[in-house]
Amino acid sequence: MITLGIETSCDETAVAVVQDGFTIRSNLIASQVHLHERFGGVVPEVAARAHVEALNPLMEEALEAAGVGFADLDGVAVTVGPGLVGALLTGMAAAKAISLAAGIPLIGVNHLEGHLWANFLTHGAPEPPYVALVVSGGHTMLVHMRDLHHHEVLGQTLDDAAGEAFDKVARLLGLGFPGGPALDAMSREGDPRAIAFPRSMERSGDFDFSMSGLKTAVLRYVKAERAAGRDINIPDVAASFQEAIVDVQVRKTLEAAEKTGVQTVLLGGGVVANTRLRERILAEGEAAGLRVLFPPMDLCTDNGAMIACVGAALLRRGDRTKLDIAADPNLLLAP
Ligand code: KG4
Ligand code: ZN
Questions:
Q1: Is residue 331 part of a domain?
Q2: I need a surface site. Which of 17, 27, 242, 255 has the fewest CB within 10 A?
Q3: What ligand 1 atom has the least distance to the C-alpha of 269?
Q4: Which residue has its alpha carbon closest to ligand 1 atom 16?
Q5: Which residues surround ligand 1 with Cβ inside 6 Å?
Q6: Which ligand is nearest to the CA of 114?
Q7: Ligand 1 pocket check: which of 10, 298, 301, 306 to mutate, most ligand atoms within 8 Å of Cβ?
Q8: Has residue 123 got a pLDDT over 90?
Q9: pTM for this structure?
């Protein structure tokens, strides 16, 4: 079974061809970072227009790299939410057109489910249940998955997503856009114990998160140091901020695994590319006797393969999406 996956929910145009649900035949990304850089963030209208320009050539390239044509496809999977509505619509229009023209099923996919299923590419899915930590530019949540398609949200951020916090603090420190990877790199030169930033809601007794107190603490620290005429040690600030976020995420994920009694923990979303989060969740999860899964670096951030992977599973169980489906910028994980 060959599935085409299309992902245009934010600022990456991504197309992939996946065989039998888990084997990547091609997985291409046209990044728009250079277009949004000078604005310091993703501009929705710019993103949608860039997707329209990039999609057709990228699709041709992805099919060619996989050595297949439209006639070989068994289905076309596309992200229908959550994400920027104008950006989502570009990928959905393309997928609907392919479905109609090639006479193959359309499968609408939840972007967050895609991030979790990125763990299964190549090796397939281990036996559920799992606890899953979703940490991206738009989401931070802990989910209990009793099976592959049902999600009980245990807790989530009450304000910013983790990726958003990384991006905002990186901007404050003058590290550019996108901030997450730059802050991660800078942190490797710094001391994570240099500044005691708050561990927001670390012991709140639930599985919710908050980034606002930490963000304000970093801002206050930087302002106070500047006002006192002291040089700011950027690597130390970056490493200390990163450690504060990672501390809470690791602790709450392990607590959620203990409370639900699962043996397997999955991580998904762009922030899972963070080296410190990967290192600590792996070490501390394994020390607690858990199996910890996270995708390889290039499958953590937005890509088409994760969408094709979910799409193939839905296709296999007989799901079909109607051609009049609308984009849903606030789509939730199915309970
Ligand atoms: O999942 P993703 O590609 O897009 C969304 O669905 O939002 O996640 C993007 C987010 C951005 O906020 C980016 O700064 C963050 O993931 N990110 C990182 C790293 N790489 C990407 N955050 C921390 N450390 C990284 N290495
Ligand atoms: Zn994403």
A1: no
A2: 255
A3: 1
A4: 270
A5: 10, 136-138, 163, 166-167, 178-181, 184, 269-271, 273-274, 301-302
A6: 2
A7: 301
A8: no
A9: 0.97
Q: Quick one: pLDDT band at residue 107, thresholds 50, 70, 90?
A: very high
136 and 195 within one domain? yes
- The per-residue pLDDT for 100 is 98
Whole-number pLDDT of residue 163: 97
Q: Are residues 24 and 171 in the same domain?
A: no
CA 238 to chain centre: 21
- The answer to whether position 335 is within a domain reads no
- Shared-domain flag, residues 159 and 279: yes
Portion of the chain with pLDDT greater than 90, in percent: 98
CATH number for position 100: 3.30.420.40
For residue 161, is it within any domain? Answer: yes
| Cα 225 to ligand 2 centroid, rounded to whole Å | 35
Q: What are the E-state strand segments in 20-139?
A: 23-31, 75-81, 106-110, 130-135
Single out the residue of 162, 132, 164 nearest to residue 146, CA to CA. Answer: 132
CA distances from 211 to 164, 205, 217 (A): 9, 17, 10
Q: 164: CA distance to ligand 1 center in Å?
A: 8
Which alpha helices (H) appear in 103-233, and where do they start and end?
111-117, 162-172, 179-187, 212-227
Structure tokens at 177: 């856009």
Site to substitute for ligand 1 among 136, 164, 171, most atoms within 8 A of C-beta = 136
Rounded Cα–Cα distance for residues 203 and 242 (Å)? 18
Residues 99 and 139 in one domain: no
Q: pLDDT of 196-215, one tens digit each?
A: 999 999 989 999 999 999 99
**In this structure, are 26 and 77 located in the same domain?**
yes
154 and 68: one domain? no
- Residue 136 shares a structural domain with residue 284: yes
Q: Does the structure show a pLDDT above 90 at 122? A: no
| Position 58 in a domain | yes
Q: How many residues does the chain have?
A: 335
Residues 216 and 285 in one domain: yes
Structural domain for 288, as ranges: 128-295
pLDDT tens per residue across span 49-89: 999 999 999 999 999 999 999 999 999 999 999 999 999 99
